Amino acid sequence: MADSSTGAGSEEKNADVVERLLERVAHLERRQRRARAWATSALVLLAALVTLAAVRVKSADFEIWPNPFPGGAGDDSARLRMVGNDSANTPKAMQLQNVTDNATPDEYRLDIQDDGGTPRVTVDDDGNVGIGVTAPGARLDIAGDGQTVLFPRKSTAGDPAGSNGMVYYNANSNKFRVFENGTWNDLVVQPTGGGWSDDGAIVRLLTATDRVGIGTAAPDGSAALEIVSTTRAFLPPRMTQGQRDSIVAPKRGMIVYDTTSDELNVYDGANWVALTTVAPSAGQTPTIYGANGGAGGLQIITIDRTTGIATLVGSGTSAVVGLAYNRNTGVLYGVASTGDDFLIIEKSTGATTNVGNLGFTIVEGLAFDPNTNTLYGSDISTDQLIRINTATGAGTAVGPLGLASVEGLAFDPNTNTLYGTDLGIDKIVTINTATGAASQLGATLGYGQVAGLAVASTPVPAPPPPLYASDTGLDELITIDRNTGVGTSVGALGYARVEGLAYNRNTGVLYGSDVPGNRIIIINKSTGASMPVGATGFASVDGLDYDPNTNTLYGTDTSTDQLIRINTGTGVGTAIGPLGFTDVSGLAFDPNTNTLYGSNNSTDQLIRINTATGAGTAIGPLGFTGVEGLAFDPNTNILYGVDITTDRLLTINTATGAASQVAGVLGFLIVYGLAPNPD
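The chain above was modelled as a monomer; its predicted structure follows.
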């Protein structure tokens, strides 16, 4: 029989177990609900973080920063940033950021930064790249003092494929190449010490020995410019006479084509002269024009001055009674025998152009003054001298001649004298161009009908420019008239014992050697005032002259008896070599033959100096004992010297060394430096 108490106890125990199990299930359900709540909260938080765009993955060093970063101060720059370390564990960064604020989110910049946060390479949203520049102002903007750019290089033969504007460096030819107009070309790089340059205003050949060849790869060694062509000619500047006369400070030898006169003109140092009127050389004969007023009308002829034979040039429409030639413009003038018209006559055809009526009825004599560009005429109807306007033909009375039959006129430009012939008294007369009054000259001609008159004259050359000299007695710059030998003071130099002078004809600079100060100076040619360049480094630079062909300033140092080369920018001298002569105090360079001359006071000889070694070679005795200064004029090929013992200017024979005195006395007792003025 079962024990009832035992059964009851089991039922109670089982109920207790069930109750505990139900409590555990309820506990697990509560934990699951809390887990679901936590999961939901985590998802909400994660969603919030994603919404704020903050993800930080440390293992990949990748950041997206919010605006503002949680827990940090507000920041107006949104960034995408990548951070890494270099081999020294120094952080480096690259970031893409909005460089202004959220109001303009399209303005972005890509920076590669150093460890201090300073951008080293920047790309802005316009595509501009800056190296060392945070705001590039061009497609490529590079900053950095002393930094360079290394261009693409090609060391193999041939050019790469190109597009216009490409540039690269060819390591075979050691030249830059640029692709332009569909082909690769060398970029011209300025060579050291020569070649050409272009500063946008002036194209220069940098040394006087440079030559230009047009149509030839080998211009002649004696020519600065050689043009070779069988189909094209040289075309000089063309301008009107007024434009020609407006050229500022023209130099002797300049050439232009005068379109007013249709003639080639050359400047002789004082005037523009038509080349057809330049004084003839041996074998040359200038043209003589004549007017034949026969029944067939005007005939212009030229006359051979040797044989007297006339050649017909052409015919005009009316007879001419007076002729005059304007040698400044090459224009031939005439006066019509009927109608009293002033004419211009075409020399090559004889055709006439009526300029205008003279206003005087019987003008038979004509003469042109080339010095004042004045055309004179003699009017027989009123017996007056008149002045004719060549542009209008109108005549203006100067004054009465005082003679009744002055028909021929001629002007001598060398003496500024107007001559005439008077048929009534059969005499030559001189005429006052200011009043018109005529004065009889000499005896009766003996030929009663001399109506035509001409003066055989040639242009008088302008006097050569004076020489420059330094007088160490008064410490002045002076000029010396090379025809008379007389000196004229210019002004105080401001330095004592300026013993050497040199003139750079390429630049117009006058240099001097200040011996006590051992320095080179630059001298104002108009006032004598001087300014220092720098110390030579030699104790006694007495001789000085300039080689314009190589742009070299030479000097002689009498303390070491050497030839030296002087830097014109610093004044510093460099020894070339021993002269082999003592006391060489004068220097002169002949640019036509590239010869450097010296005056040797120890033997009173002229010497020739080798500019490469400095060695001197004796030419011959000067014949004077105190020749301190020398100067060579390349225009006249004359070597000048100054002798302080006789106070005279000398001319020196470069073949023998023998010197001859020029007429006058200098008037300055201690002239050491001498320099030409070839301009």
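Confidence is low (pLDDT under 50) at residues 50-62, 64-78, 100-105, 277-285.
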